[in-house]
Amino acid sequence: MFVKQKQGKSGFARKLGAIAILSAAISLLGACGTADNGQKAAGSAAPAAAGGAAGPQLPSVLNYGYIGTNKLNYPGGAEGWGLYKGIIQEELKKYGITEVKLTGFPNGPDQSESLISGRLDFGSLGDTPALLARSNGAKTRAITQGATESVGYLIGKKGGPAAVADLQGKTVAIQKGSFMHRYIAGLVKEQNIPNVKFIHMLRTDGEAALSRGEVDAMTNSAIYAFKQIDQGYPLLDDATKHPHLIGTSITVVSEDFLKKFPDFPKVWNEARLKALKDLQAKPDEYYQFLSQLNGFTPELNKKSSPISTIKDVPFTDEGVKLLDGTKKFLIDEKLADKDFDLNSWIVK
Q1: For residue 278, with 0-12 CB atoms within 10 Å meaning exposed, 13-18 middle and 19 or more buried, which class applies?
Q2: Count of CB atoms within 10 A of residue 156's CB?
Q3: In the chain, where do the E strands start and end?
Q4: Is 33 helix (H, G, I), strand (E, B) or coil?
Q5: Closest Cα partner for 199 from 5, 2, 1?
């Protein structure tokens, strides 16, 4: 049997259960008209509800979280490009949101905790931590599945394991609760490799431990894995060989924020689509932007994060199928506490 890092009642899961979602006080506005496009207009221009009741005051500041840290403080993808270029901000201003505050996180569980505590309104992260958070009681809704081709890579130490089967009795550094955790746990189970020890390390710590020979292998994501391979570390496996173990990227919003801004999923996805169309028209500029974020060449970014993988619709049948498979695995392996209805979680 392999060693599982269970998301139980201690650690991350306990924090999820312990943090209460704060209810926002709702200020009533005077009766007013409806915006031309059928959405809620900014601030005091929020449309009146049927019978003359006023809608809630929309916040002027939007707090958004993403995975990764960089000097520019932007994520990649359509979301990052749209925020970097101001495309998304211009769309949000129509609804009274005058500022978007961005916060980068080293991993999904940390971001989920900030969302649950109310420090964030919404955020984009891997599907596994988002599903784990929802399973453990987080009051969130999924509004976008921006990418469905997140590949986990298994990198061995130099002179160490040469194949997945060689991991028996070995130690693998993982980012606990990430889509790569789901990938390696599923791989080890399917290939029936006993006594594999998983230890939680953030990417930079795992890379350092691997270089010193303190762990036998580690999971990593595309561009960083490519760098390790170029440095001579052996590639033991990757999720492209196991399509059902591929991860996805998802954007979730707190239910508390949705109460204030019920139309936010539609507004966000329309702004995101506008940003996507803009970057599709400027591919060279977009890859230069990614290069500024992660320090790798535009050519390597083109290889690891092609524009073609960015989805132009909130959800696809293929993407939802991957989500469902990941949720089932997490429940079956007792990595997640409670099952839940995926269709009720997704805003369509």
Answers
A1: middle
A2: 25
A3: 61-67, 99-105, 122-126, 140-150, 153-156, 171-174, 197-200, 217-220, 235-238, 247-254
A4: coil
A5: 5
- Confidence (pTM): 0.82
Residue position matching structure tokens 């509800």: 49
Reading the chain (348 residues) residue by residue, the pLDDT tens digits are 333 333 333 343 433 333 333 333 333 223 333 333 333 333 333 333 333 334 467 889 999 999 998 999 999 999 999 999 999 999 999 999 999 999 999 999 999 999 999 999 999 999 999 999 999 999 999 999 999 999 999 999 999 999 999 999 999 999 999 999 999 999 999 999 999 999 999 999 999 999 999 999 999 999 999 999 999 999 999 999 999 999 999 999 999 999 999 999 999 999 999 999 999 999 999 999 999 999 999 999 999 999 999 999 999 999 999 999 999 999 999 999 899 999 999 998
**Amino acid at position 191, single letter:** Q
Partner residues linked to 142 by β-bridges: 252, 346
d(CA 115, CA 225): 29
DSSP 121-157: SEEEEEHHHHHHHHHTT--EEEEEEEEEEE--EEEEP
CA 295 to CA 68: how far, in whole Å? 13
Q: Is 26 left (phi over 0), alpha (psi -120 to 50) or beta?
A: beta
Backbone angles phi, psi at 224, to 5 degrees: -75, -35
Question: Which domains are present in the chain?
Answer: 48-150+247-345 (3.40.190.10), 153-245 (3.40.190.10)
* 182: nearest Cα among 304, 323, 75, 11: 323
Q: Please name the amino acid found at residue 343.
A: N
190: which residues sit within 8 A by CB, 6+ positions away? 242
Q: Give the whole-angstrom CA distance, residue 90 versus residue 110.
A: 29
- The Cα–Cα gap between 33 and 237 comes to 58
